[in-house]
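Q: Here's a chain of 269 amino acids. Please give me its 3D structure as tokens.
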Amino acid sequence: MNDKSTFVELDQVSFGYGSRTILRNISLRIPRGKLVAIMGGSGCGKTTILRLIGGQIKPTSGRVMVDNQSVAALNTHQLFLLRRKMGMLFQMGALFTDQTVFENVAFQMREHTNLPESLIRNLVLMKLQAVGLRGAHHLMPSELSGGMARRVALARSIALDPELILYDEPFAGLDPISLGVIGQLVRRFNDALGATSIVVTHDITESLNIVDYLYMIAEGVVIAEGTPAEIYQSTHPYLKQFVNGHADGPVPFHYPAPDYAHDLLGDGL
């Protein structure tokens, strides 16, 4: 049965490389029109989930559904059609370094549509206006600050008014002002476009300010989920450590090692 209220669903999904398991029976549901965060420490499998949703990789077991289609079952043509509904903000922006700001945003329009150049020009300027960078349309990526580059990448990700927008660590490496600006733009575009958005991040403060719901991943499984208010109130040990940034807890400060006294005496090395 089709569920029109859900745009993305992972149902008991596992994935690994050889004997190394990344995800273990992950289940999550992303409702249409909502902004949902997938959070967790480095290496927990967050970006792997985005790659599964985009069809770059296939699950070892379980189902990945996007817009009521099983991604793994699609042929190449069908997968490309599905990806036309998606926008992607890559980690650190990933702008084309040999193209201007204008050309970066225009790229998808020229690649995937037959729109006349006059209309593409107007649409590009509209997207750049939305991120506050219409006046920077002639600049090269090397002339942009980190925050400006991320905003250009955001304008490029919404160039075709996607139904689903995927954000891979959109706040990484940004100063507090740029981080706040990007966070508000992510929220604004989700609502203005009527899109469904998935933000993969480990930035707890900004994410809890803008998202509708979030999933917390640790060691390849969902350990907690809920609204921002529910996450703040959670007593789960890992969640408390993550939210408060404690150095030690379920994620230990010390890498496993023999007794310290033995090493000092030369017995452990």
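Q: Can you summarize the key feature?
A: The CA atoms of residues 188 and 210 lie 9 Å apart.
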